[in-house]
Amino acid sequence: MTPDPASRAGAILEIDLGAVVANWRTLAAKAAPATCTAVVKANGYGLGAARVARALVTAGCNRFFVATLDEGIALRQALGPKPEIAVLNGPLPGSSEEFVAARLMPVLNDPNQIEAWSRLTTRGECPPAMIHVDTGMSRLGLSPMEFEASIEHIASIGAAFLISHLACADTPAHPLNAIQRERFLAARHRLPGLKAGLAASSGIFLGPEFHFDFVRPGAALCGVNPTPGSPNPMHQAVRLAARMLQIRKIDSGESVGYGAEHFMSRPGLLATVSIGYADGWPRSLSHRGCGWLAGTRVPLIGRLSMDLATFDVSAAAPAELYPGNMIELIGEHYGVDDAAADAGTIGYDILTSLGARYHRIYREPDAG
Ligand SMILES: *Cc1c(COP(=O)(O)O)cnc(C)c1O
Predict the structure, then answer these.
(1) Is the same domain home to 39 and 138?
(2) Domain limits for position 293
(3) Is the pTM of the predicted complex or chain greater than 0.90?
(4) What pLDDT sits at residue 215?
């Protein structure tokens, strides 16, 4: 008999769709009466865009954002014709017709995209467009001057939504938040018929004056803390555990791993575990990450290899130390943001790097 895929997998990623739905409901309640949409770009921040979006449709979400046309086409196939899907990066030259075919709303970020879209809208039925006005991010979006020059054009192409994006929403005291809000208010004043949206995950927590008509969280749905420095109001949505392949005794003075950078200062027990940077577990966790084994913190020691990591399990309960048992790498003790802090990055990066080699298990939300 071949063992089932979960029992032979080197590492298992559990995705708790119930937690994602609970997070969406928390954010929707916070943003009400503004509508809560969902950003599922980059394959739903690594969790699986189709699975996440389908669970959110069931919970009542009916507007989604992705980054690229191909993400939009795939999501349209997964969700069917009904939910609205907007593509943040907008149409590349020559791709506008694909948006119409898949009924994707383009986010129009510059005068060329507006121009290309207007040529289509004169010919037939198109999904409504979203206009992105830059208010201080200087990344995508119409500059204030371009926006002013495009007002009449925008009104004529069936644009239905107006968005902008905050640069410092995770730092509530940052003065740019109020400046961006003022600029966004001014833009909305010029196009009062459009539904307006400014806040992503962290922006929702800046207060009702940032909510406008709709909000568009992504990372917070997946459990990343939208209020860094304060307790996380979101539920963890992923659990990652990797299997111990070998347990070994090691003497004081022996080195561990590539580069012989870690030396044992006392004899101990090591577990070699089936996870590495090829799984998207960041190599910058070398010497600094940790895992949890039945309630005991076990430090990652030495350099992380491509397919393997070494943990000092000397402190773990002996009964837990056998090949095949699993060390938890993301979970209740050590969340996405904790791993990110140790790796010198952000939770977004940890999630969107989650690898293709994990065996994935989806936990469906409870019915009702
Ligand atoms: C990624 C993105 C979002 C979602 O941001 P989160 O911080 O993940 O909530 C919203 N709007 C735009 C324009 C984005 O690029």
Answers:
(1) yes
(2) 238-334
(3) yes
(4) 98
Do 186 and 307 belong to one domain? no
Are 173 and 216 contained in the same domain? Answer: yes
Q: Which of 23, 64, 65 to mutate to test the pocket of ligand 1 (most atoms within 8 A of CB)?
A: 65
Q: How far apart (Å, rounded) are the C-alpha atoms in residues 225 and 348?
A: 10
Number of H helices, E strands in the chain: 12, 19
Fill in the amino acid letter for 159. Answer: A
User: Into how many domains does the chain fold?
Assistant: 2
Give yes or no: residues 215 and 298 share one domain: no
- Residue whose CA is closest, atom 3 of ligand 1? 200
Residues serving a catalytic function are: 41, 258
Residues of the chain with pLDDT under 70: 1-2, 368
Does the beta carbon of 218 sit less than 6 angstroms from any atom of ligand 1? yes
pLDDT tens-place string over residues 52-94: 999 999 999 999 999 999 999 999 999 999 999 999 999 999 9
Sequence-ordered alpha helix ranges (H) in the chain: 5-8, 17-31, 41-45, 49-59, 69-79, 96-101, 111-121, 144-156, 175-190, 201-204, 336-343, 347-352
Please indicate, yes or no, if residue 358 is contained in any of the structural domains. Answer: no
